[in-house]
Amino acid sequence: MTTSTNFKFLLPWCAAVVTGILMFLGYAGFDHFYLEWFFLVPLLWALRDQRPARAFWLGWLAGIVGHGGGFYWIIQMFQQFAGAPFIAGVFGLLLLAAANGMVLALWAWGTTVLTRDRQWRVLWVAPVLWTAIEKLWPEVFPNYLGASQYRMAHLTQIADFAGILGVSFLVVYINATLFWVTLRWREQRAVPWGAVSALAVTLMLVAGYGEVRLREVDRKLATAPTMTVGLVQTNRGAAENHLAVELMQKEHREMSQELVAARKPDLVVWPEGVLSVSLNSRQGSLPTWALGDLHTPLLFGTCLQIREEGETRFCNSALLADGSGRILGSYDKTVLVPFGEYIPFGDIFPQLYAWSPYSAKFFSGRSVEPLKLGDRLLSVSICYEDIFPTHIRKLMRGGRAGRQPEVMVNITNDSWYGNSVEPMEHLALASFRSIENRRSLVRGTNTGISAIVDPAGRIVSRTGVWTREVLVGRVPLWKGGTLYGAAGDWIGWLCAVISVCLIAATTLSKKARA
Q1: Is the overall model pTM greater than 0.90, yes or no?
Q2: Could you report how far apart the first and last alpha carbons of the chain are, in Å?
Q3: DSSP 99-166
Q4: CA-CA-CA-CA torsion for 183, 186, 189, 192, nearest 10 degrees?
Q5: What is the mean pLDDT of residues 470-486?
Q6: Is 348 helix (H, G, I), strand (E, B) or coil?
Q7: Is the separation of the CB atoms in 70 and 36 below 8 Å?
Q8: CA 389 – CA 191 distance, rounded (Å)
Q9: What pLDDT, on the 0 to 100 scale, is given for residue 404?
Q10: What is the pLDDT of residue 352?
Q11: What three-state secondary structure class fits 308?
């Protein structure tokens, strides 16, 4: 094989690697968001004249590189969350990257199948396929492409009717147009002005919609009722939940007492898993000394041991107590972290828990009812539940009575991931729940990033990462719904139907010609 032949063989694979690198560098945390506007161009270039099978492998390579670089913190998560050795963490990262990388593999395959005979189709095939796969492919840690644009408020407001998937569609559409313009210019020395004009008009419409919605949100914010919320971030990591329990709880009480004395908030929020509580029912009271004698309502995370339905259950929960310690409501985490909060198939094979002694065995929550603080309704989620749009949308429906919450609260523990980009990725993904539901989001964490996000998805205030501090802010109480709240991921389902029909029609057409 000659040097020229070797180069031609390697070039597509190098292009796939470049796409993967651009992908994670452009994502939230690394924050070079503009890279996502053209990260797919090298891969699309590599897919020209490729067979669908080879396109699949090229896409998978790009996906593995992209997710491997973006999710490097998984190694530490496996070490801290499940007590796994370093090599097992590396293996876990490779498995996760390979699983999530299937999004690019399937997208590359489908794009090749549908555009081999008509390259111009890439303009609409690429975003339609991507959106369909992003909706349907199951991911342990969903990482929607649209989250990369969390700082671009004018581009993200479309999430109130199209969700974060709509922003992903837009990003891939930009990529496809840039590729098509580059291809036409290189091969024909002609600019496809129709495609350029369509993209320009689309961006103007999206930015114009964003401007209108931002002005509307700001106008409502000026007159909306508010509540003052204080967040306590002690900078105590997950290990100290077990090794320094009394010290950690003491620091939460003392920092909260100082916060209440200085700012007199309506609600104090402690992060996930601060206290361990044993209850026989979900009513009753807790000793005020354990809550800091704050005489102020407190929402806190707890490892809850409760006797229900004739058995003792352990739940990762949030409890809301008033100033006298009376329990006003509770929420049990529904979306559990595999290998950390439960082991898949562990009920069938109990020995799995003996092999992974650091893994908990929590029961999944069932209630979607908001918590009531006086005449205010709070939607509460725990840990990474706030990155699942469908789950938060379910919570925002207001339960049996349909009384929609006026603010969203998330309590989490991101210390498992070390000093990495994960806390920013998590916050960026979570911020889209504010746009989709037009509610403020209050996030309390133990080591950062604690934050207050307004109904336009803008991070109004935040703490640092691995810092000890409190965060106090006036949070607007909002009413009303959104199209996304009513229709959900309609754009994902629509793109899925279109994709399936197109691939089926193309396959049948080729068989008929054979």
Answers
A1: yes
A2: 33
A3: HHTHHHHHHHHHHHHHHSS-GGGHHHHHHHHHHHHHHHS--SS---GGGGGTT-HHHHTTHHHHHHHH
A4: 20
A5: 95
A6: coil
A7: no
A8: 39
A9: 94
A10: 56
A11: strand
Q: Measured between alpha carbons, how far is residue 122 from residues 14, 26, 67, 169, 370 in Å?
A: 21, 22, 24, 13, 44
In whole angstroms, what is the distance from residue 343 CA to residue 346 CA?
Answer: 5
| Burial class of residue 45 in the structure, from the number of CB atoms within 10 Å of its CB (0-12 exposed, 13-18 middle, 19+ buried) | middle
List the strands of the sheet with 451-453, edge to edge: 371-373, 376-382, 407-412, 441-445, 451-453, 459-462
Residue owning tokens 């929607």: 144
pLDDT of residue 491: 98
The β-bridge partners of 342 are: 338
* Euclidean distance between CA atoms 319 and 304, whole angstroms: 9
As a whole number, mean pLDDT of residues 255-274 equals 95
The DSSP code for 296 is S
179 CB-near residues (< 8 Å, 6+ apart): 40, 41, 44, 45, 122
- What gap in Å lies between CA 301 and CA 273, rounded to an integer? 4
| Residue bearing tokens 């969203």 | 408
| Burial environment of residue 193 by CB neighbours within 10 A (0 to 12, 13 to 18, 19 or more) | exposed
Q: What is the mean pLDDT of the chain?
A: 90
Q: Helix, strand, or coil here: 320?
A: strand
List the one residue out of 192, 241, 180 whose CA is nearest residue 48: 180
* Average pLDDT for 171-182: 97
Q: Which of 425, 474, 472 is nearest to 454 (CA)?
A: 474
Helix (H) or strand (E) run with residue 317 in it = strand 311-321
**Residue 306 structure tokens:** 């409760």
Calpha distance 237→248 (Å, rounded): 9
Give yes or no for a cis peptide into 164 (omega within 30° of 0): no
Contact between 437 and 484 (Cβ < 8 Å):
yes
Helix locations, 328-482, DSSP H: 351-355, 389-395, 422-437
Q: Is 419 helix (H, G, I), strand (E, B) or coil?
A: coil
Judged against a pLDDT cut of 60, whether residue 336 lies above it is answered with yes
Cα separation, 267 vs 297, whole angstroms: 5
Cα–Cα distance, 180 to 172 (Å, whole number): 12
**Looking at the predicted structure, is the pLDDT value of residue 374 above 80?**
yes
The number of CA neighbours under 13 Å toward the Cβ of 271 is 30
> Residue 397: what residue type?
R
Element (H, E) at 231: strand 226-233
The one-letter code for the residue type at 220 is: K
Strand, helix or coil at 404?
Answer: coil
219 burial type by CB count under 10 A (0-12 exposed, 13-18 middle, 19+ buried): exposed
> Given its phi and psi angles, is residue 490 left (phi above 0), alpha (psi -120 to 50 degrees) or beta?
alpha
Q: Is the pLDDT of residue 135 over 80?
A: yes
